[in-house]
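#onboarding

Welcome to the new folks! Below is a worked example of what a typical request in this channel looks like: someone posts a single protein sequence, and someone else replies with the predicted structure as tokens. Don't worry about understanding the tokens yet, we'll cover that in week two.

Example request:
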Amino acid sequence: LGEGQTPLNIPFKDGEALLSEIIIKDDGSILATYGLDDTKLLAKIQLADFVNEHGLQNLGNSRFEQTKESGEPTFDAPKEGTLGKLQVGFIETSNTDITDEIVTMLRTQRAFNGCSKILQSEIDITKKLSAR
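Example response:
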């Protein structure tokens, strides 16, 4: 979001020059290059911290909203303050270990199959006893 909590719009054209590159620097600067050498600073990313981050309302799609429980945010620039830094050029990886998840799924499936067989055996025994 840009100033005033409005979405940041990056124009595709600046005069006759077309957008050729978008750069995000580790200090939070968002730069747009038009044509070959006309670079403009569009905005600066700010980091926010809340007294109670668990009090934020989850809006979905990695978006959160401030609530009374979360408290007022504290803003700071990346790399300058104590809130953290931006790591530009990195892709965030999953925090899930796929091998562990598959093993857990297989164990759960085996347990389910075992329980199903026990229930089926109980049904068969009940049918035999009630037929007598």
